[in-house]
Amino acid sequence: MRDDIPKWIGPPPPRTSSAWKSWLKKWQNYALEHLGDADALNPEMEFGLLSPTERKARLLAQEVDRQLFAGLSGDEFTLHLDLGDRDLVYAGTQAWLTGKAVFGHIPVQVAQKTDPWLERHATPARIAVAQAIHVGLLVGLRGKPCEEPDGIMASSAYVAAWIVGNAKAIEADPR
């Protein structure tokens, strides 16, 4: 939860309470007018109430989900390696490659493009996210329980990958 909510707005009430809608309206007006935060209108981003780290983790999980499904479905590699947040591009690239490798092979031209880029941009945190994607997908495909690793980004990547793997395992189950 973000820590810059003004005292006059107060902390958010429970979402099931009658006070939630009026509090949310107050928050959205403030966030849009004074903070320029368009996420205040986005329920997927918790109406702008996430901290910067939580927002990045949510975006990372969405990118991992999108790219894993693209790779698993055999879709073309469409990420632009030098555009956008490098952490998200790195995770998305790893997710697509992981998904593609599960049910097929990675095209040579894609490997020639992605491998050097991934090597140049590897950091310990990005490598941990990549490992979380690989392990999460494989554990999910095997129908095993989800066990999150330490670290918010690696944990988000793992859970997103596990969900995709688990969905594929359920889809392939003949029962």
Tell me about this structure.
This protein is mainly α. It has two domains: 1-50, no CATH class; 52-172, no CATH class. 61% of the residues lie in helices and 0% in strands. It is built from six helices and no strands. The protein has helices at 20-35, 52-72, 86-103, 108-120, 124-141, 152-172. Helix 2 packs parallel to helix 3, helix 2 packs parallel to helix 6 (152-172) and helix 5 (124-141) runs parallel beside helix 6. The protein is globular and about 55 Å long. The N and C termini lie far apart (41 Å). The model has no long low-confidence stretch (mean pLDDT 84).
Sum up the structure in keywords.
globular, mainly alpha, 2 domains
Summarize the structure.
With 175 residues, the protein is mainly α. It contains six helices and no strands.
How would you summarize the topology of this molecule?
Layout: H1 20-35, H2 52-72, H3 86-103, H4 108-120, H5 124-141, H6 152-172
Helix pairs in contact: 2-3, 2-6, 3-5, 5-6
Q: Provide mean pLDDT, rounded.
A: 84
Structural class: mainly alpha
Radius of gyration: 19 Å
Number of domains: 2
Strand elements, count: 0
Q: Number of helix segments?
A: 6
Helix content: 55-70%
Amino-to-carboxy terminus distance: 41 Å
Q: Which shape, going by the Cα principal axes? A: globular
User: From N to C, what is the helix and strand string?
Assistant: HHHHHH
Low-confidence stretches: none
Query: What percent strand?
Result: under 5%
Q: How many strands, what sense, and barrel or not for the largest sheet?
A: none
